[in-house]
Amino acid sequence: MVDLQDLLIKTSRTFALSIPLLPEPTCSEVRLAYLLFRIADTFEDSTAWSKERRIRALDDLQAAL
Fold first, then answer.
1. Does residue 20 register a pLDDT over 80?
2. How far apart are CA 30 and CA 13, in angstroms?
3. What backbone phi and psi angles, to 5 degrees, belong to 28?
4. What is the pTM of this model?
């Protein structure tokens, strides 16, 4: 199983330091929310994909959630 804290460390320097300071269950909830928003941000910022492909990816992510 994937460790969300490991993913957080790989994707963010500042949030990876501050999120673990939150009490549970807020810590787990904020960690997951941050990673989900990072996925959406990556799709939005992709220069390798056309605008239409980025929109489809965001729509697919929304449907999965």
1. yes
2. 15
3. -65, -40
4. 0.84
